[in-house]
Write a structure and sequence with these properties.
The structure holds two protein chains of two kinds. Chain A is globular, with a radius of gyration of 16 Å. In chain A, 49% of the residues are buried. Chain A has ten helices and no strands. The termini of chain A are far apart. Helices cover 65% and strands 0% of the residues of chain A. By secondary structure, chain A is an all-alpha fold. Chain A has a single domain, classed as Urease accessory protein UreF (Orthogonal Bundle). Chain B is an alpha/beta fold. Chain B has a single domain, classed as Rossmann fold (3-Layer(aba) Sandwich). Chain B is 36% helix and 15% strand. A seven-stranded parallel β-sheet of chain B has the order 3-2-4-1-5-6-7, sandwiched between helices. In chain B, helix 1 packs parallel to helix 2. The chains are: A mainly alpha, B alpha/beta. The interface between A and B is medium-sized, with 21 and 22 residues.
Chain lengths: 218, 244
């Protein structure tokens, strides 16, 4: 299918989709704790779009292509894991994958591999996009948009301020999301999945996993 | 069966769960999930109480949304319950503690099969009269810390009676950790509810987001008290108009 219903993208990108998204800050809580200021959140988001989120979107796009060809999604999962060095981020990504697996199996039911419960969010999203008829560029957009909205929604919980100012940041980042999506939408094979890392984000995620006082899982 | 424990912060939800674990762990396979708002304090309290193996107690982060986690997006709690079952086989009773919040937070029937709502006498004897979905329509209302009544000037018997009135006769247990008879009433209710759940005689019910209220029609009639948990509400012709 060449075009995705814009309503499908809206449905999946909506924070009200019950997939457990409200437990997430996309690394913002530990970033603020480590001294990031709220004014630095837009550059923080651009860094994510060029690194960890790009990896996530690339893995999702490849998972969609592999699912469409009847290939082995466990290979995509392994490739994503190899590009996600933080154990805490891998565990969190797989928890999120289980949330989306519930969405997939209720909204677009069908047979899944028995190991699907251990797949990360991008792999499950790739399979979901294949089943739901969402094209590759919109799938990558969804991953980028969800990441940006997760960070900004968490910011309003952690350091409340004029929410429209924050919404304006999201609007200003839409071209960055489109640019990232265009860079990964054509990927088809596991070795093509980007491998950019963000060592500080990964280290903060590890620290966050060990503390006892936190609002968000990751 | 999954049992929700809700109620305002500081009313003794964690202690009540510790009491249930102490009394029931010999006869039932138990698991506990805590929904802390800021920390894993409740999970740590329960682990340190030594009433259950620490691996059977799981904290869930709620992203500052304790209502959401037990009502409109229960995903994180469902996954934690799945994990407990995957690690320990099927369990008889999984107790889910809500993040201590306020009078309005109750569990979705998509998450729990039964729920109890905890108040304490130290919060004031008038709290039951303030009402709310948990007080009025949880499967059980617990009025906790009754031993403190004389110290905080609360007439415990009156508070329990007003609780029963607010619930139109629904179950109320006046509980004190120092009163074995009251603990037996609580555990008896849990055993009884579990037995009815197993025979299919217990139906999970949403206490509803709103307290009982009435709509007054434009003609000034038809303002009968009801709740939106009443299925008849949506079908009542009197509400076909723009009253909502």
């Amino acid at each position: 299918m060449d075009t995705t219903s814009s309503l499908l993208l809206a449905l999946l990108g909506d924070a009200r989709l019950p997939s457990g998204g409200h437990t997430q800050s996309a690394g913002l809580e530990p970033a603020l704790r480590a001294g990031t200021s709220s004014a630095q959140v837009p550059p923080y988001l651009r860094v994510r779009l060029r690194t960890v989120t790009r990896v996530e979107a690339g893995a999702a796009v490849v998972a969609r292509a592999v699912a469409a060809d009847g290939g082995d999604l466990a290979e995509v999962e392994a490739a994503w894991a190899a590009r996600t060095p933080s154990q805490a981020l891998r565990a969190n990504g797989r928890r999120l994958g289980r949330g989306y697996l519930r969405v997939l199996q209720t909204l677009w039911p069908g047979p899944v591999d028995t190991s699907a419960r251990t797949w990360s969010r991008p792999v499950v999203l790739g399979l979901l996009a294949h089943r739901a008829g969402m094209n590759a560029v919109d799938l990558a957009r969804l991953v980028g948009y969800d990441d940006v909205q997760t960070v900004t929604a968490a910011l309003l919980k952690l350091e409340p301020q004029d929410p429209l100012l924050i919404a304006a940041w999201v609007k200003d980042l839409l071209p960055d999301i489109d640019e990232m999506a265009a860079q990964v939408a054509h990927l088809h094979t596991t070795e093509q999945i980007p491998a950019q890392g963000a060592p500080l984000i990964e280290r903060w995620a590890e620290t966050h996993d060990t503390i006892t006082e936190r609002l968000f899982s990751a | 069966m999954r049992l929700g424990v809700a109620g305002p912060v500081g009313t003794g939800k964690s202690s009540l769960i510790a009491t249930l674990c102490r009394a029931l762990s010999g006869e039932l396979r138990l698991g506990v999930i805590t929904n802390d708002i800021y920390t894993d304090e409740d999970a740590r309290f329960l682990k340190s109480a030594g009433v259950l193996e620490p691996e059977r107690i799981r904290p869930v982060e709620t992203g500052a949304c304790p209502h959401t986690a037990i009502r409109d997006d229960v995903t994180a709690n469902l996954l934690a319950a799945e994990d407990l079952e995957a690690d320990f086989g099927s369990l008889d009773l999984v107790i889910i503690e809500s993040g201590g919040d306020n009078l309005t937070a109750t569990f979705s029937p998509a998450l729990v099969d039964a729920q109890l709502f905890v108040l304490d006498v130290a919060g004031g004897g008038d709290v039951v009269r303030k009402g709310g979905p948990g007080i009025a329509r949880a499967d059980l209302l617990v009025i906790n810390k009754t031993d403190l009544g004389p110290h905080v000037g609360v007439d415990v018997e009156r508070m329990a009676r007003e609780g029963r009135e607010a619930r139109r006769g629904g179950s109320v247990v006046a509980l004190s950790q120092h009163d074995e008879a009251s603990i037996r009433m609580l555990t008896g209710w849990v055993r009884d509810t579990l037995a009815r759940y197993r025979t299919g005689d217990h139906t999970p019910v949403d206490p509803g987001p709103m307290a009982p209220h009435s709509h007054t029609g434009r003609d000034g009639e038809g303002g009968h008290p009801h709740t939106h948990a009443d299925s008849a509400h949506d079908q009542a012709p009197a509400h076909a108009g723009p009253s909502a």
